[in-house]
Amino acid sequence: MLDLTGKNALVTGIANSRSIAWGIAQQLHKAGANIGVTYLPDEKGKMQKKVSDLVEPLNPSLFLPCNVQDDEQVKSTFTTIAEKWEKIDILIHCLAFAKKEDLTGGFSETSRSGFHTALEVSTYSLAQLAAAAKPLMKEGGSILTLTYLGGARAVPNYNVMGVAKAGLEASVRYLAAELGTANIRVNAISAGPIRTLASSAVGGILDMIHHVEEVAPLRRTVTQLEVGNAAAFLCSDLASGITGQVIYVDAGYEIMGM
């Protein structure tokens, strides 16, 4: 029943095989979607090669550099998408970044530049990409982002990223309200802690994972592919009535009081 054949899906945020974005891309491809991938360019081209080699089995029809801190590059990315695809059906936003020194210690010690960077990359970029994708979602579409429990509750060391995720979740609601008349749905998945390149910067991430394994109803954390399965559902017609929501894929940890 879950069929994404004929759908064009742009996936951002793949860094390596541990990336949640990679799990999502695999499941969208498995459901039949035509995949496009963006990567964060660097001067030596290491990220381009790493991501290109990883996603090769998905046979992406688009593979583009896109640094969301560069407005001209974002514009160029979506100009190319318009020329090659003409339309987008699915936009996957898996972008988040905070300086490592702002993910340990006290939140009050967050630097002005660190606060700005975290919210620019992790929060503003959703609205930025949604605005660029909207004209290309001619038949409606689905926009999906990733959040975490630290956006709703205080989690040790999550600090400025928690504030960024809270803003991201609010952005989901405002974008859903704005874009609904164009039949564009906007949702978020709040995944349990997974060991990824991004999460490795959070102080005590392994302790967080072990705690979830001890406390969550399923007595484990989740995998990238489990998040990918939920993403494929939310991006499909099976979820046509769901928008503006934060869906927890965390082995049930969010329901626990202690």
From TrEMBL:
Annotated substrate binding sites: 98
GO molecular function: enoyl-[acyl-carrier-protein] reductase (NADH) activity
Keywords: Fatty acid biosynthesis, Fatty acid metabolism, Lipid biosynthesis, Lipid metabolism, NAD, Oxidoreductase
Annotated metabolic or biological route of this protein: Lipid metabolism; fatty acid biosynthesis
Record field: catalytic activity: a 2,3-saturated acyl-[ACP] + NAD(+) = a (2E)-enoyl-[ACP] + NADH + H(+)
Enzyme class: oxidoreductase
One matching Pfam family: adh_short_C2
Signal peptide per UniProt: none
GO BP, one annotated term: fatty acid biosynthetic process
Record EC number: 1.3.1.9
Coiled-coil blocks: none
Active site, renumbered: 148 (proton acceptor), 158 (proton acceptor)
InterPro entries on file: Enoyl-ACP_Rdtase_NADH, NAD(P)-bd_dom_sf, SDR_fam
Binding residues annotated for NAD(+), in chain numbering: 13, 19-20, 95, 165, 194-198
Gene3D superfamilies per the UniProt record, alphabetical: Enoyl acyl carrier protein reductase, NAD(P)-binding Rossmann-like Domain
Family label: Belongs to the short-chain dehydrogenases/reductases (SDR) family. FabI subfamily.
Name of the protein in question: Enoyl-[acyl-carrier-protein] reductase [NADH]
Origin species: Mastigocoleus testarum BC008
